[in-house]
Amino acid sequence: MNNESLQNLIGSWDSELTFTEEGSEFLNISVQPKQLHRLMKQLKTNAETQFDYLFCLTGVDWETSLGVVYHLESTTHRHIVVVKVQTEDRKNPAFDTVSDIWKTAEFHEREVFDFFGIKFNHHPNLKRLFLTDEWVGYPLRKDYVDEINMVVK
Amino acid sequence: METIAVNNSFKSEEYFINMGPQHPATHGVLRLLLTVDGEIIKKVEPDLGYIHRSIEKMCERDSYQQIVHLTDRMDYLSSHINNEAVCLTVEHALQLEIPDRVKVIRTIIGELTRIASHTLWWGVMGMDVGALTTYFYGFRDRELINDIFEETCGARLTMNYNIPGGLMFDIHPNFVRRTKDFIAHFKTKLPEYDTLLTENIIFQKRMKGVGILSKEDAISYGASGPVGRGSGYSCDVRKYHPYSALDKVAFNEALGYEGDSFARYQVRIQEIWESISIIEQLIDNIPEGNHQVATNAVIKLPKGEFYQKVETARGELGVYIISTGTKNPYRLKFRSPGFSNLSLLNRIAVGGKIGDLVATMATLDLVIPDIDR
Amino acid sequence: MTRFFSITKNIHEWLFDLMPEGLARVVEMILIAVVYLLIFSVAGLYLVLLERRVAAWFQLRIGPNRVGFQGLLQTMADALKLVSKELTGTERADKFLYNLAPYFVIISSLMALSVFPFTKDFQAFDINIGLLFLIAISSIGVIGILLGGWSSNNKFALIGAMRSGVQTISYELSVGLSLLTMVLLAGSLQLSEIVEVQKGGWLIVQGHIPAFIAFMVYMIAGTAETNRAPFDLVEAESELGAGFHTEYSGMKFAYFFLAEFINMFIIAAIATTVFFGAWLSPFGITESIPILGVLWFLGKTLILVFLMMWFRWTFPRLRIDQLLTLEWKYLLPINLVNIVFMAIVVLLKITI
């Protein structure tokens, strides 16, 4: 399925989604945190989309907001879609986990939690993955400061 | 029917073992927290980060040319392919027209890298199941590839031969001849591998029916590379999203269907043969032309998001760049194959013996810097 | 040979002149023990060197060739290094058992050596239950391994030790039964008697098919007894680091190491004695010069040792359940049937 028909199909499920293809080769879907889990479930189970392969899960700090980018691919139809979710709550950012939909998200979400401090509700084992449990702060955030270990040019 | 009371006073107790961070079977500094009942694995919990260097954060302050050099510190056994991934992303973003010569050379060296990586893996695989001799056979042949790399790229492991826009230098005049010599030599040596290890009955008993990964799990856990293909999951990026000169060559995707350790083993052996075939198709037809196209000294990507997949020796490597139009990426994410492949270890190792865990982990072919980035 | 015997005879007489008979016997025994100890600790070191050279040969390498001519002093240097090394240990180890363990292993190995007939009349200790003594003594070593693994307060060592216990107890059966098969043929447990029987032909030839089966079973089980690959689960380095001797260093480690190689020699030497006529030369070609028997004995033993090294550098390691399956489901039944078979052969006198 090409991007246009994907947009038509997915847009018909939920009117609150926003779509863009600007600056990216894939179809980008922005979703509200509340709808995230439902949309993801539908993307995977719907016979026409069948996005069964979550190949990349990225945490991003957009300075004003924190977010997660999901890259999904279907192994049957071989189309790709990008789902983005954002929150402006920098103190206590939280999204629903998708680790019950794609098992690989379990590790990827732990990585995002480790580096961005984004919590994932209902995650089976949400704790730091790379850093030690005593680490203060979230290193991949743009406002993270570590005067000893970071070389700023 | 009367019920019989079972006396539970004789029961075994679970205990923990710390496998690693320094352990011969983890091939690096990976720490596994094992819950074991006697010899039987009950739970495997990886503890990562012992060599995490935060390459993604470093990338945010570096220029695109510099980033290439960081990537071969991730999966050092497929460093050329890692370099290629970043270069392809940047070239794609800049919409550079890359000469065919560059594409073909990149593909040849990429496949040589794959052979080198699989050969090393084969040696280490044998060592992990106790056949120490395979290690030296594997290294014998890998050295020859490294010699070829040394002559052309100037380095044996972290080659840094790619730059955004092409290759750093043209190939060495001996490159074609030596590669052909190597292929001819290696074709006689590869059957030796089978007689030494593959056909060994003990080895087969150790591998067959162990660490079974179903196709559904493989997809759900994001398995890629030989790990996914061993479960019958067709996931070769070279087939589905061909890059460089891979759309010009004919090759078969190596697939296994049993999903056990032996299937993964055979997929890798099969892939060596396929890589040889790809190199043979290209080595005589390297087009003439420039080895690079000129780029600005300071590369600035246009505003936007760019994603590029490549197939390293371990699986699918993704490079995701978010650019705001400056000379540094705003965010750069490496989707490393080893990270996803490691996450399924708990799924397939539970229920096996400690010896099985080691053998299974060997067939996942983990490179720890790739996981820890 | 005559000179050799006259030396021992002179010492014997001199000792008996010097002191009362009881004391003289004790002193004589100690002297013999010291001589054996010296000979075999050096021999053990050369077995290590041999192993390293053979391994290198299998692995397309050269192996140690710098210290001394062709590396002949390499293992001596290694031993010196080990002696001078610090003895480390874990904090909450059971110190007494921890220190005791290596001696169990090394003493059981060295004691077993005493009964071998290296050549005619060159046997320290010729008892009429020689074979039984050998099997009994060589099993004591496992106590050392169990103690070492258990007391060193390390889980990897403990797993290794437990594996060793399981393995040795299982394979002891096969070793014993396959030797029992040959005892049926030889009609004696005394090693000198067994050699005497073979003057007409080695037992493996006399017993033809059942003897050959017994030999195969013995070599497999014997390799397992010595904890060598493909049965090296006890110290499976890719699984357990170094297995039961993970926490040992310096001389204590050297004892374990040396014992492994002497055990290998013992297993090969038993096979030589029981199956291949010990010091007897083929067709009696050098029967008139008994001293050459030593060379024959060592030659045959080293060929078998080489066979075991060949196993080690070729085969992958078995898994613990496969190890037990092999013993209890295959080797043991084969062995039991083979004993009956051998009994029939001996009864009907269809030996060669």
Which terms summarize this structure?
heterotrimer; A: 153 residues; alpha/beta; Beta Polymerase, domain 2; five-stranded mixed β-sheet; two-stranded parallel ribbon; globular; B: 373 residues; alpha+beta; Cytochrome-c3 Hydrogenase, chain B; 2 domains; three-stranded antiparallel β-sheet; 8 strands; 47% helix
What this model shows, in words?
The complex is a heterotrimer of chains A (153), B (373) and C (352). Helices cover 24% and strands 25% of the residues of chain A. Chain A has 153 residues and is α/β, with parallel strands linked by helices. Chain A has a single domain, classed as 2-Layer Sandwich (Beta Polymerase, domain 2), CATH 3.30.460. A 5-stranded mixed β-sheet of chain A has the order 1-2-5-4-3. The radius of gyration of chain A is 16 Å and the shape is globular. Chain B folds into 2 domains: 12-52, no CATH class; 56-354, Cytochrome-c3 Hydrogenase, chain B. Chain B is 47% helix and 12% strand. In chain B, helix 3 (79-94) packs antiparallel against helix 4 (100-128) and helix 5 (133-153) packs antiparallel against helix 6. Chain B starts with 14 loop residues before the first strand and ends with a helix. With 352 residues, chain C is mostly helical. Chain C has 2 domains: 1-84, no CATH class; 93-347, no CATH class. Chain C has 13 helices and no strands. Chain C has helices at residues 2-18, 21-58, 74-84, 95-112, 130-151, 155-186, 191-197, 203-206, 208-225, 237-240, 250-275, 292-312, 320-347. At the B-C interface, helix 4, helix 5, helix 7 and helix 14 of B face helix 6, helix 10 and helix 13 of C.
Q: Class by helix and strand content of chain A? A: alpha/beta
Residue share in helices of chain A? Answer: 10-25%
Largest interface: A-B, 36 and 38 residues
The total domain count of chain B is: 2
Strand content of chain A: 25-35%
Indicate the overall shape of chain B. globular
Largest sheet of chain B: 3 strands, antiparallel
The CATH architecture of the largest domain in chain B is Orthogonal Bundle
